[in-house]
Amino acid sequence: MKAENIDPMLTKPLRIQRVQRELPDTFTLEILPSNGGFHFTPGQFNMLYVFGVGEVPISICGDPEKSKSLVHTIRIVGSVTQAMSRLKSGDTIGVRGPFGSSWPLAEAEGKDVVIVAGGIGLPPLRPAIYHILNHREKYGKVVLLYGARNKEEIIFWKELEQWRSRFDMEVHVTVDRGSGNWHGNVGVVTTLVPRATFNSADAIAMMVGPEIMMRFTVLELLKRGITGDRIYMSMERNMKCGVGICGHCQWSHHFICKDGPVFSYEQIKVLLDKHEI
Amino acid sequence: MNKATTSSNRHYILQSGDFQRLLDSIIGNGYRCLGPTVQDQAIVLDDVSSVKDLPVGWSDNQQAAAYRLQKNGSPAFFGYVLGPGSWKKFLYPARERLLTTTRSRSGWKAEASAEPVQKMAFLGIRPCELQALAVLDKVLLEGTYADPVYRARRSQILVIAVNCAEVGGTCFCDSMSTGPKAVSGFDLALTEIITDGKHHFVVESATAKGDEIVKLAHGVSASDQEISKADAVSTAAAKKLSKKLNTIGVKDLLARNLTHPRWKETAGRCLTCSNCTLVCPTCFCITVEDYTDLKGNSAERVRRWDSCFTMDHSYIHGGSIRNTPDSRYRQWLTHKFSSWWEQYGISGCVGCGRCITWCPAAIDVTEEIQAIRDSEKT
Ligand SMILES: Cc1cc2nc3c(=O)[nH]c(=O)nc-3n(C[C@H](O)[C@H](O)[C@H](O)COP(=O)(O)OP(=O)(O)OC[C@H]3O[C@@H](n4cnc5c(N)ncnc54)[C@H](O)[C@@H]3O)c2cc1C
Ligand code: SF4
Ligand code: SF4
Ligand code: FES
Fold it and tell me: Looking at residue A122, which CATH number applies to its domain?
């Protein structure tokens, strides 16, 4: 596919409809797409620009079948995300996208699906969860394993509760550090893998989280018998363009922005255990 | 060395005394004529309107970490090899506005920077640099998304190559199959010939535009004998190339040696100054900067050349991915010679030797690759 006459760096100003605080440092923006709606596939991201401040890659985390609203959940870590957190309903934000590869949702049809998320890794997986639940009959068992640092950092709490209460979905949540008011699992998310129920001979895994968490999760999944070509993960690197031009997101020969961010473990296993590539 | 001349191309003889006419006909055709000039004791690509602007009688002496222009008394117009700056600076400038955003009542609007594109003639572009343009085309034009400004400029250039008669101490174009004779990618390719007190150019034309320009400059058809004299200049130049790189399997060689101790050793000398990436004609990395006016009513996004030797290049929240100089040196070398092949199906290096000449620590990519190759022979 060739996007002949598009200026790939030209951002499109869109109106913010709603801002929702998720956690003290995390918020969700609902953006009104221009006419026609915003179409994407789960796993893709946008470059979001704050007037005069800068532009950063953020995964799309809404329901792919609700094209009338574009949803992003963002954690404040630095200057651009900080400035973004100050935007209010009615303000304008610049959007370029959608860019990048997607979760293997077609390939996962008829199979069990294991979704593993760490911390702010849940938003990039949420469109995949929505898609699977929208087409629940097409998938086998669906398991979500979610880990946060502590109870206070659990994101999408209400939705997690809703999902957990479904009879057709298995949800396990853990926190790294327990506290008096937490009565659930304690331990890193990898400790949940052994207790998930799925048919490893025919399951697909998708994960997002810090790289170290993903490396250990892969090992657990391989131990359970899911082969590397059925394990998918979303990678993060510095990105200035999102379209394969600026060079920043290179990871050996991969451009994470256009060949990824979603890769199969098989594609990247030779790189995953090497430092500073 | 490159293959023989494409047979359908036309050949002309242009007397050195008519060279001004060539410049005039380029400019008369509406081109901004860019070519070699002498500035700050270096060959600098800049506007050229007169033969006097050319580096007549200058040659350059290039070695690892050494560059010196010398007056050699020759009448040659193109007796030097390469300056530090490449033609990339005209097609993909070091700094350029991407867009302007302006506040409006309903928010703000964004406009692409719409600076008019001027037709440019690249006079004196070397064969390796023609290949560098082909490499940049792959990156900036042939992906899913093309850079519109690069495309607008690129599509309008008139390319007047000059084949190399002299070679530099750091060049290795024949190893990379990019020179010293231009085979494609030009309108005109000139070979400068100075014998028996005579000074003329054999001009190979590959396009109708090229024919038109050279005829306006009083170029006349060249005989087979004259053409073979030009070929002999290129053959002689190729023989003078002393630096070589064994490129056999280099892509896999580097890919399987990502944890080689050599990276650390070389990084001990590397100053991570970015010189190599800035002089390299194929490095395409850019970063984007944001500016606002004092009142905050309008903002600009500006792109500028970046380098994988900076810490910011790989920064993500919590720190840089390539924190050590070893990893940054490895990124540069493996990108040029290995991952580029995977990405674009060609080498990212064209063998111009600039990174060797302009490295203050005299790090030589050909030596580095050979060292890794040699270490496998045990
Ligand atoms: C494909 C992709 C999807 C992402 N999805 C989300 C998401 O859904 N929600 C979310 O909160 N964050 C997401 N991130 C991370 C987000 O892009 C960074 O947190 C953000 O760029 C930080 O910018 P800053 O200016 O606030 O931080 P600073 O630390 O001030 O940033 C300085 C520079 O580093 C870059 N940078 C810093 N951290 C990162 C990072 N982690 N990844 C890439 N570039 C970085 C910035 O773009 C900027 O250029 C995603 C990153 C990628 C690559
Ligand atoms: S890597 Fe060095 S020799 Fe190769 S094209 Fe770049 S500057 Fe020239
Ligand atoms: S990653 Fe480094 S070597 Fe590759 S194009 Fe960018 S600056 Fe040049
Ligand atoms: S983000 Fe620019 S090349 Fe990938």
Answer: 3.40.50.80
Structural domain containing residue A69: 3-99
Structure confidence by residue, pLDDT tens digits, B56-103:
999 999 999 999 999 998 999 999 999 999 999 999 999 999 999 999
Indicate yes or no: CB of B258 within 8 angstroms of CB of A277: yes
Q: Which residues pair with B192 in a beta bridge?
A: B201
> Bridge-partner residues for A144, per DSSP?
A115, A171
Q: Does residue B254 contact residue B333 with C-beta atoms inside 8 Å?
A: yes
Closest CA–CA distance from residue A258 to any residue of chain B (Å): 9
* Whether residues A251 and A180 fall in one domain: yes
Domain match, A178 and A94 both:
no
| Chain B interface includes A277 (CB < 8 A) | yes
Count of structural domains within chain A: 2
A245 touches chain B (CB under 8 A): yes
Residues of chain A neighbouring B284 (CB-CB closer than 8 A): 245, 247
Contacts 24+ apart (CB under 8 A), B253-256: B253/B338, B253/B369, B253/B372, B253/B373, B253/B376, B254/B333, B254/B334, B254/B337, B254/B338, B254/B369, B254/B372, B255/A252, B255/B334, B255/B338, B255/B339
Residue of B nearest to A78 (CA): B317
pLDDT at A53: 96
Same domain, A27 and A89: yes
* Phi, psi of B215, deg, nearest 5: -70, -40
Does residue B215 register a pLDDT over 90? yes
On whether any CB of chain B is under 8 Å from the CB of A106, the answer is: no
Task: Look at the alpha carbons of A27, A33, A39, A44 in this order and tell me if their dihedral is positive or negative.
Answer: negative
Instruction: Identify the CATH number of the domain in which residue A29 sits.
Output: 2.40.30.10
Q: Are residues A126 and A86 in the same domain?
A: no
B306:A12 CB<8 A: no
Does A208 map to a domain?
Answer: yes
Q: Are A199 and A92 found together in one domain?
A: no
Please give the biggest Cα pair distance in chain A: 58
Same domain, A22 and A69: yes
Residue of B126, B352, B356, B367 best suited for mutating to test ligand 2, as the one with most atoms within 8 Å of CB? B352
Q: Count of CB contacts below 8 A, A vs B? A: 135
How many angstroms separate the alpha carbon of residue B248 from the centre of ligand 4? 30
Q: Let me know if residue A277 belongs to a domain.
A: no
Whether A78 and A119 share a structural domain? no
Q: Where in chain B are the domains?
A: 6-96+113-240, 250-288+315-375
Confidence category of residue B276, pLDDT binned at 50, 70, 90: very high
Give me the numbers of helices (H) and strands (E) for chain B, helices first please. Answer: 13, 16
**Closest to B191 in 3D by CA, of B1, B43, B12:** B12
Q: Tens digit of pLDDT for each residue in A93-129?
A: 999 999 999 999 999 999 999 999 999 999 999 999 9
Among A6, A13, A236, beta carbon nearest to B145: A6
Q: Is A6 on the interface with B (CB under 8 A)?
A: yes
Q: Which of residues 142-171 of B touch A (CB under 8 A)?
A: 143-148
What is the pLDDT confidence band of residue A1, given thresholds at 50, 70 and 90? low
pLDDT tens digits, residue range B30-51? 999 999 999 999 999 999 999 9
ipTM greater than 0.90: yes
DSSP A190: G
**CB-ligand 1 contact for A255 (6 Å cutoff):** no
Q: Are residues A150 and A249 in the same domain?
A: yes
Q: Determine contact: A212 vs chain B, CB below 8 A.
A: no
